[in-house]
Amino acid sequence: TCLTHILFSIDSRRKFTAMFKLRVIAYAEQTNNCAAAREFKVSEKSVRDWKKLSAQLKLLPKNKCANRGKCNKWPQLEVEVAKYVSENRQNGYGVSRGSIRIFALKLARKLGITDFKASHGWCTGFMKRNDFVLRRRRKISQLLPQELDDK
């Protein structure tokens, strides 16, 4: 029992692809959850959880490490903040992490969300979820020489 306890505690730190999870589910349906857990060296709880999510796992790409990470807690807020960032960038204004957080806090108050803090971690996750990167606006500051066309 000591070896299985160590094995299953390591299980929570490993990542599994959707294809692996589907193989475990198929084996568990042929035999049972406990036998599948022993065969693939995962916990029986993981097998039970994966069986519940089998419909979602079939729709995912096979190499995706399925159902990892958290989903966003305030989707309506994040859609509005993403629009704000996109519009500001299209208009040529710079967007900083601080401006995103301040706008998100104001919007949360307007939407009546009380448990939102607009933390640094939330902002980082928001930018990853929406494929935003903080970058500088670049302009060509030097003019080209007047004799360029003549040569």
Automatic annotation (TrEMBL):
<dbReference type="GO" id="GO:0005634">
    <property type="term" value="C:nucleus"/>
</dbReference>
<dbReference type="Pfam" id="PF09607">
    <property type="entry name" value="BrkDBD"/>
</dbReference>
<dbReference type="Pfam" id="PF03221">
    <property type="entry name" value="HTH_Tnp_Tc5"/>
</dbReference>
<keyword id="KW-0238">DNA-binding</keyword>
<dbReference type="InterPro" id="IPR018586">
    <property type="entry name" value="Brinker_DNA-bd"/>
</dbReference>
<feature type="domain" description="HTH CENPB-type">
    <location>
        <begin position="65"/>
        <end position="136"/>
    </location>
</feature>
<dbReference type="InterPro" id="IPR050863">
    <property type="entry name" value="CenT-Element_Derived"/>
</dbReference>
<protein>
    <submittedName>
        <fullName>Pogo transposable element-like 15</fullName>
    </submittedName>
</protein>
<dbReference type="GO" id="GO:0003677">
    <property type="term" value="F:DNA binding"/>
</dbReference>
<dbReference type="InterPro" id="IPR006600">
    <property type="entry name" value="HTH_CenpB_DNA-bd_dom"/>
</dbReference>
<dbReference type="InterPro" id="IPR009057">
    <property type="entry name" value="Homeodomain-like_sf"/>
</dbReference>
